[in-house]
Amino acid sequence: MANYVMVLDYKNCINCKACEIACKEENGVLLGADKHRIWVGSNNPKGEWPKLDIASAAFLPSQCQQCENAPCQDVCPTNATYYDENGVVQVDSDKCILCSYCMVACPYDARYVDDRTVTVDKCTFCSDTRLARGEVTTACQNTCPTKVRTFGDIDDPDSEVSELLRTREHFSLKSNLGTKPKLFYLT
Amino acid sequence: METVAKKSSTIKEFIRSIPINKIGVKDLLNFEKSPLNLFLAALTLVFLGLFVVGVLFYLLHGHHAYNVTREHPWGLLIAVYIFFVVSSTGLCIVGSLGDVFGFKDYMAISKRAIFGSIVTIVAGFVVIAFEIGHPITMMIYNVLTPGLTSAIWWMGTLYGLYLTFMIIEFVFLLKNDMKSAKTFGLIGLLVGLAAHSNLGGVFGFLNARTISNGVFYPTYFILTAFITGVFIAYIMMGFRYKLSFPKEIQTMLGGLAKIQALLISILIFFVTWKFLTDVYGGMPNRAEVAEHILGSWTFWAEVILAMLIPLTIILASKASAYKAIFFASLSGMVGIFFMRYNLVHDTQLKPLQEMKIREYQLPPEWIHYFPSATEIMISLGGLGLCLALYYVGTKLFSLDTEH
Lengths: 187, 403
What we know:
The complex is a heterodimer of chains A (about 190) and B (about 400). Helix content of chain A is about 20%, strand content about 20%. Chain A is α+β, with helices and mostly antiparallel strands and about 190 residues long. Chain A has a domain at about 5-65 and about 125-185: 2-Layer Sandwich (Alpha-Beta Plaits). A four-stranded mixed beta sheet of chain A has the order 8-1-10-9. In chain A, strands 2-3 form a two-stranded antiparallel sheet. The longest helix of chain A is centred in the N-terminal third of the chain and has 10 residues, at about 20-25. Chain B has about 400 residues and is mainly α. The interface of A and B includes residues 33, 103 and 119 of A.
């Protein structure tokens, strides 16, 4: 049993989108732009040439925040969304009724409909694939050329994620909502 | 063994004693062939036909037949479901005025309103069955692994109970057993109100959607349900008496119109303050959504059709122009439809993913949605079903209250 989190040194991101491809490949996510478990967000740079505001065009890789207090879990009428033994938010496709309430409630737009099971799907930190095989890295982390992501057990004080969170300043997305995300962005 | 047989014969006896008219297809076709009646009959059949076509498309293509997306997962069918269940709760409130609370003037509509509440909620359930991806799984796991923190679980479960109590109340009303009708009517009303406020809670609990989050919707739903109930009561009575109302019905309609004027005034007050607080201070994700809503024609359709027209007519006529109020009620129901559509759409207006995630696109500003033909066909089908069931009910049961 672990308490998995992900730490993102997002300023290293070069928007190559290799993580998106690796995720689709590893987890068999269907093709289609709106079928994605993870994504890289970007903004067009503000200002006019030559005084472009480069800082405004930062890339922000993201995915399901694996919230400790997940709104998607609270609103699920059949408990199809649940926390597994590693604290990862999962969907039991046998119980999902596709009412889509979790999609409306998720503050991060992290959920979509998987056309194969006709149920809601999301990032699982590669629980069914890499973690199930005994590996302790996620596909998106493994493929990243600039090592944006670090994945590990926050309950292990010797883990790399614990070390990073102890030594680097960080923030979470939409933390004002009280969702207690487990994705941490290093500043 | 003997006791079981005895019980079963008592139940059979009870069911047999419910006054139901024996009717055949001939009786169903036996109505006054006025142009309006023929038009309504044809319209109902067209709606039912569209329903069949819409369902076929849905069965072939699933949710791909709808214009719902990852960013806008709830579409027209959710709005129509809410429209029907709000109508049902409203009719239950109006029906309860007489048989639960004992206001004699409103007894005349009790049976009809309670029957209407059953018909409308059945139509709502039928429509939602084609929106929920796995309705059978829902029935199984709602019981096996209930999500007690989910407003949808409470709403669905309580509405199921509510329907049961409404049917029992209606049976006792038919049997003229007013004491039992009152008991089950009161339980049904309380369960219905709880269910309905939970439906508001479905939106009110959305912390991420600041425009809907909060106490407003759970309370507003009850208020607008009562308003909807009065609109439908007027429409039912208008058709029943072909707009020539007898004296005692006029007394009832006059009273309902006064109640309606008060309710609509409160609604206008509520909505005004909701928007003032939404816009005030320019709170991110709330103020700009509220301003966007204020600039949409569907919001003004709601305000004009469901609030201003009915209120003006009631006030101008001092609640006595029953015919005009009947037409205002028709306008009101169209407005109520927009109210439901706006509620669902506006909740999802603001994208939660505000960054650009694909190349060659701009960051999303607002989420656009327009229902697909299949969604429209199933929705109109729900209305057709409602009209057809109500018509059959008027033949099967004696819905007028004897004086």
